[in-house]
Amino acid sequence: MMTVFLSVVFWVCVLGVITPYVVYPASLFLLSRLRQPHEPGSATPRASVVISAYNEAAVIREKLENACALDYPSELLEVIVISDESDDGTDEIVREFAGRSVKLFRQVPREGKSAALTKFVPRCNGDVIVFSDANSVYQPDAVAKLVRHFSDPKVGYVVGHQRYHQGDGAASKSESAYWDFEIRLKCWESRLSSVVGGDGAIMAMRRELFSPLQKDDINDFLIPLRIVVAGYRGLFDPEAVCYEEAAPSFGGEFKRKVRIVNRSFRALTRAPGAMNPLKVGVFAWQLICHKVVRWLAPVFLIGCLATSTALAASGSTFFQLTLVVQIAFYLLAVARLIPKVGEFKLIYLCYFFCLSNVAAGLGIINIFLGRKFSTWTPQRTEISKS
Length: 386
Fold this sequence. Notes:
Blueprint: H1 2-32, E1 47-53, H2 60-68, E2 77-83, H3 90-95, E3 102-106, H4 113-120, E4 128-133, E5 137-138, H5 142-147, E6 155-165, H6 170-192, E7 202-206, H7 219-229, E8 233-245, H8 250-270, H9 277-280, H10 282-295, H11 297-313, H12 317-334, H13 345-368, H14 379-385
Parallel strand pairs: 1-2, 1-4, 2-3, 6-8
Antiparallel strand pairs: 4-7, 5-8, 6-7
Helix pairs in contact: 1-6, 1-10, 1-11, 6-13, 8-13, 11-12, 12-13
């Protein structure tokens, strides 16, 4: 009886591991073929580009030059920088652009991005809010591509296509490979229903749909959930493009993922209707498979290892083989720590997968420990200080 129980647990855990990477993508692709792509429209509403910044002196000038050069009617566009008590000269640089429709809103004391958006988004003049990061460089037509979809009154938010300048390091290549996979999912989700989550680097929403955020809310995930629950649709536009540098190190990416999973799980409790299929339809399935099951992968991986170990010890040849395969996989990941050997693609991708799941596990553990994240220092700021 125990053998049967452990076997069932093993296969449930296997399903949990492969669902977000195999089962869900395959099912999503097939279902998305049943719907026609959304027609973009030609709306040109008043738009406010909102740039959140904390100590971004190294990149803010380039960002503002880029924003001021966007191919969008100047009388319909304003650029707003929300400085979260920056103290590195960011604000002084922003003030140099005061004559070019650039406004500076400064938050004191420092409370994080979500608190800043809650304070200052109501002061924006645009009918559409375009959220951006200080290091995100937009293609000239990016804003026009985003906002055109609001011709459809049922569209509540639109997510753009963030692309990474791929560096030479393993961390950069791993993140780029993962992101290519994510982009495919976004395209299929958008076609079927709504894209799951947003992107703080490039996302637009109707201003009237913005609602106050708590300090520790993850704005670019919670905002889209609330909009879908309110009955609107969220789209992904692959033609609305911005560029960022990929993660400079595995360490920085690890800390970022711990924060994201921690805050995203909390967001689910702030918009529980997003997981109710009676309220949001197929989007609930997308959210659970794409995000929730993936965040729980550390639990499933531990379950696979524990059950296969117990069943292998009982003499099962099949489970002895599965145990060997798992151990070999983790050894490949550990091999990333060996100089030169760790630069092989298979090895650093295994390492990235394991690192991401350890980060997800820590993010969940921090929830039970009561730890919240509302502010952080951008990796580029940390690097400049080191």
